[in-house]
Structure formats: structure tokens, C-alpha cells
Amino acid sequence: MSSAVNLRQPLEEQFRTCALYVALFSLLPFLIIAAVNVLDADLWWHLRTGQWMVEHRSVMHSDLFSWTGLGKPWASYSWLFEVLIYGFFVQFGLLGILIFTYTLLLSITISLNTLIRKFENRLAYSVGLTAVAMVAITRVSSPRPWLFTILFICIELNILVSVRKDRRFKKLLWLLLVFALWANVHIQFVYGFLVLGAAIAEEVLNRLFGARLKVGNDSEVPIPLNVSISITIGCILATLINPYHFRIYSVVIDTFKLGGLYDLIAELQSIPFRGLPDWLVLALVLGAAYVLGRDRSLNAFWLLLLVGSSFISFRGLRDVWFVVIIATTIIARSRSGKEGLIRKITKAQIGIVAVASFAVLMLIVSSLKITNSVLEETIAKTYPADAARIVEQQRFEGPLFNHSNWGGYLIWRLRQLPVSIDGRSNIHNAGDLRQNFDVWKGRPNWSQDPHLMASKIVIGEKDFALTQLLREDPHWRIAYEDNVAVVFVRQ
Fold first, then answer.
1. DSSP assignments along 393-456, one per residue
2. How many domains does the chain have?
3. N- or C-end of the chain: fewer Cβ atoms within 10 A?
4. Which residues of 376-412 are buried (b: 16+ CB within 10 A; e: fewer)?
5. Are 159 and 31 in a shared domain?
6. What percent of the chain has pLDDT over 90?
7. H/E element holding 477?
8. Could you tell me if 439 and 458 are in contact, meaning their C-beta atoms sit under 8 angstroms apart?
9. Are residues 116 and 185 in the same domain?
10. What is the pLDDT, as a whole number, of residue 220?
């Protein structure tokens, strides 16, 4: 949102502007609640990693959290995210996780709306389109480093669209700072290069095929090839400003080799179309495809981005945000060049919206009675919080055998007892995860699993098949049991 002053804006329109943005920002707390952020399985090992780095004043280079992967090379490539979220936890407890998530979602909303407003001059439509996009990405509005990637993609597109409109190429230098930060918070900074690659490919295709371009004050003109290539090289160099330097790209390569996990981990599977957000994604993609098909001019940049982001997003649920942002921008872009000026938001309006939105947020938090104690009770209904407390009190010795879904939480909760497996896919491969799932399902030869045979303690979900089998196994005895978990120790 721009802070330029517009004194001629009627009072009624100023009120409507403030009301629309307050309504938009008030949507965010409900998105956070819908995502049940404090129950995110990977949140916990991120917290533990952040704690370790703060205590040791160093990034991690090998696995210290699982006895099956102990000493295996591992880069905490999201180190800055982990330090930040741990800092929020230290200051505010579990509420800090929600504050952190809300802050990032708010930043994403503002950046996306700013991008939409570069094309859409109707305030209500721009706010409504932003709201639809934010609801569409509800499934990924959890406290993960990918929130930074979503934000940085929006910022990158804002910069590129501005340059394509006003030809002020110095703005592209901001991308160097964006990529330098990006490479320290999330490995998906490579998606930013896909966007830059589309800008390069657009000019190449235009030269080869002579694509027709729109003309006019609101049109976008491709960035010259030498400029786009130069800034891309600069951004690549900027990503090397991280604790792992060029080795960060080995993590990228390893990440691309995780294809075997797509049928094991829910967030890596395709969109299930089981809720409103999923159908909104499809509606936005179809709307963007219609807009591009109706456009008489061939714009290779947006076409390539829509095709590429569609492939990535429909392949894996955790990347659904990518096509949502691209499709939303393309739909807004269909208004480019239409009559009417885009009214800028004044500083006074920004202040009113900020105060009113904060008041609504506090009202929502108060009415829902969201406190640290309530969040802890919520966690105890899903994770083995009480079981972990008993294990600590009784000082049971490992090795520990656990399900991968609880691995991240146990890393955080039982800091002196390494887990057998967790959600870090670059430590535990698809074969490890599949074997772990099979054992907990009680499939044939479960008792011959080497990790189970080497374990002295098992923490299992009460209703799992393995839990029922161990009840009858004379080699194990129940040390603790509640409505969530059962703790077994070897006889």
C-alpha cells in the first residue's frame, strides 16, 4: 500500500477504504486458526534447531537429533527462520508462534495487494481478489519457512512489474538483498530464479517469434536480455552470502532427489480437492487461463509463469501458493490500461487500518480465549506431552523408537533422548519412512525391524497397530499410558 497523500479523496470513500482493509486483515487470524499452527509436526524440530544454534552460536553441519542419522551431514539451511521463531517462542511462549505466523501472513497480504493494485484500480475488487488468494493458500498458512518464500515471491514480482512498467532498472538491485535474505531462511529461493528465468525466456522468445506486445502507459515491456541476465547472475552471487556458501546448492540438489516421498507425505501429494481453498485454487487458475487466452497479445512472461507454477503447485500441496499468486496477478492484470486511476492509500488511512485491525485481532484472541495454557492443552491432545514428561522423570534410557509424525515433537521435548526418525526428509529417506510406516501398521516381519530391535523404549500412539502388538509381546512392558500415547520399555 502506498503512503502518498490524496486530500481530494471523499470522506465516504476514505471510510470504505479503511473498512475494506480492516476486513481483509481481520481474515488472517481465522486462517491461522484454520491451519492449527501449533500442531504443525515440523514446527518442533525447527524450534529445537533454533535453540541449539542460539545456545552454541553456530549453525548445524551434522545431525544430532536422531540416533539413526547421528553424525550424518545435515545443513540447517533455514537457520535464520529457526532462530527467529525460537526467539518469538522465548519471548511469548506458544503465543509467539501465532504472532510470528500472523506477522508473516500480514506481510504477504500487504505485498500481494500491492502487486494486484498495480493493475486493478477498483478498490473493492483488489481487496476481494486478495482475500480469495489468501483463503486459497490456507493449507500452507502454518509456521514454516515457506511463508518467507511466499513473501519474497510477492516482493520479487512487485519489483519486476514496476520495472516492466517504468523502465527504472535500478530497482532491480533490491533483488540482490531479497535473494541474500531468502537463501538464509528457505531453500525454495530457487523458485525466485524460476521467475527470473521466465523474464529471460520472454525476451528470447520475443526475439525468435516476434511476439506482439501491448502499447500504452500501463503496458508492461520485457526487461532487456542483458539486464535480466546480469541481475540473475548478481542474485546467484547474493545467495552465497550464507553460512554454507556454495554448499547451499548441494542441499538444493538433494531436495530435488526426494521424489520417492511424494506418496508418503501429505504435504507433498497433489491437491485433494476436499475443501473450499482447493476449489478456489482451481477457479483462480482457470480464470487466469481464460484471461491469457482472451488477450490478443502474447505475453510469454506470464504464460510461462502460469504453466510453470501450475506444474509445481498441482504436483505438491505445499507449493499451492505459487500458482495462486501468479494466477491472481494475471487476473488483476486483465484490468491494465482500463479507465480510472488507482487511488493511493494515505498515511492517515494506514494508521487507522493498523489501529482498527489490531483492535479486531485482540477482540478475536480474547473471545476465543487463546492463551499459552490453552495452546498447551491443545498440544497435549495431539502429541505425547504427558508421556514425554514421564520419560524425563523416570530417566528411561534409549535408544527410542517412535513414529515419524511424532519425531519432530520428541526432538523438542526429549532433548537428551535422540529419536529414531522424524520429518527431516534429507536425513531420513523414502525407504526409512516407508519402513517406519509399515512397522507401525503391524505388517509382516514388524518384529524384525532393526531399529525396533535395537530400541529400549517405544513411545507410540494409542491406536496404532504396533502399540496393540507390543501389549502382547513379552519382551515389552507398559511404563505409562494415557488417552494419547503409550510408553513401552524393554523387559
1. HHT--S-EEE-HHHHHHHHHH-TTS-BS--S-TTTS-HHHHHHHHHHHTT-TTGGG-HHHHH-S
2. 2
3. C
4. eeebbebbbbbbbebbeeeebebbbbbbbbbbbbbbb
5. yes
6. 56
7. strand 476-481
8. no
9. yes
10. 81
pLDDT, residue 102, reads 86
Sign of CA dihedral 217, 284, 26, 13: positive
Answer yes or no: are the C-beta atoms of 164 and 221 closer than 8 Å: yes
Residue 191 near residue 154, CB atoms below 8 Å: no
pLDDT tier for residue 7 given thresholds of 50, 70 and 90? very low
Nearest CA among 283, 281, 304, 303 for reference residue 293: 303
Asked if the structure places residue 42 within a domain, the reply is no
Residue 70 lies in a domain: no
Instruction: State which amino acid sits at residue 43.
Output: L
- H helical segments located in 448-488: 450-454, 465-472
Q: Say if residue 401 is in the same domain as residue 353.
A: no
Q: Is residue 65 part of a domain?
A: no
Do 472 and 352 lie in one domain? The reply is no
Residue 178 lies in domain: 11-35+75-359
What are the grid coordinates assigned to 114, written together?
500491492
In this prediction, residue 32 carries a pLDDT of 63
pTM exceeds 0.85 for this model: yes
User: How confident is the prediction for the chain on average, in pLDDT?
Assistant: 87
Could you report the per-residue pLDDT of 245-271, keeping only the tens digit for each? 999 988 888 777 666 666 767 777 788
